[in-house]
Amino acid sequence: xxxxxxxxxxCSECAFESPRWYGKCPGCSHWNTLTEQEILPVSAKSxxxxxxxxxxxxxxxSELEHQKEDRRDTGxxxxxxxxxxxxxxxxxxxxxxxxxxxxxxxLLQVCKNFCKDQTVLYVAGEESPRQINxxxxxxxxxxxxxxxxxxxxxxxxxxxxAHVKPDVVMVDSIQTMGHPGLASSCGSVVQVRECTQxxxxxxxxxxxxxxxxGHVNKDGGIAGPKVLEHMVDVVLYFEGNRQNPYRILxxxxxxxxxxxxxxxxxxxxxxLVDVENPSLMLLADRxxxxxxxxxxxxxxxxxxxxxxxxxxxxxxxFGNPRRTATGFDFNRMALLIAVLEKRGGYFLGNLDAYVNxxxxxxxxxxxxxxxxxxxxxxxxxDKPIPDDVxxxxxLGLAGEVRSVxxxxxxxxxxARLGFRRLLVPQASLNHLQMPSYHDAEIIPVKDxxxxxxxxxx
Length: 457
Description:
single chain, Rossmann fold, 9-stranded mixed sheet, 7-stranded mixed sheet
């Protein structure tokens, strides 16, 4: 007589399991995230591992042979940069983004490079082969070495991988995959977790890379359990506005490289195109002789990027002033306004304040504090900042401008793009070599008042 299936309540955020329902998850403290899932029991207990098998698994770290990572060129320079130099064999890459942002287009362009001398298996769980063929024709993809499998059963996917023996596998998307041995529907916590685990085992055993597309929820995070991000090797977020042709690729996790790098693409009729110099793109439509704009230089991994910071200060018609920040941390903006009032004497308590980073870029580095503060003061006084000025530095609560890292790379990039005056923290000058910088002037600033004085000249 077969054992009966039992029900478990599993959290959709952290995969916490409980035999009873809770309104608030004990694991992650989220509300109304526990859903009932039917768990099929195991028919027989597995035998304990023998001593012989354990001896083949356990080995000394000093006895292992050091091998260099085998990285494959994806054909996209910006994608290679985010991955850390290329795609590592045996890795599982999770690609997430909003619907219509270009995830499937990015995968097909990677196929375009791989299919020249390798075989690619494209598991299509959402689109028909005809739709994929139409997009491939638009992108100029040679379909000779690309196999399309419109299946959603994970066991059929594994059988297809064993039969085709591809060099690269792409699954679009993981939320459409299902295991026939589980009673829950596709996209549930159990299904997503188990299907990803099977793909991970197949990738490690076959030493081939796997791209997995993941949906995002309304909060912008990857749909499904958080453990999904812990299982894979690389987590990539594809960001951007569908009305804007530019896309930004970020790495939230990377076991084979840095997570500070970003990739910038431009969506066109022929697909995604690498943007080799994002600074020129972000500053292309910058207005001239207008108050409330300042150029910031931030580091995204090993690459300095110049971005335009815009600020607007206006009268408030209601009792409470409004604060809005796009591409900049809201709490950091409130801190900078407090520093301007206390240390600079510029009162914005009864005024609305808006901060916007042009181009869809998000500035998380503290070096963006000084240009944001200067842009707010510039618009408050209606005093334009000179077009050849760029600023970067962290602001402390005492109004001091604190040092930043990679000053040499920032100064070189600013001078190369034609900026003639660079407001830099005085504490960072000891890390700066003083070449000509193409006639650019390095202006050290000690505190916020000194920076504002230089700006008002």
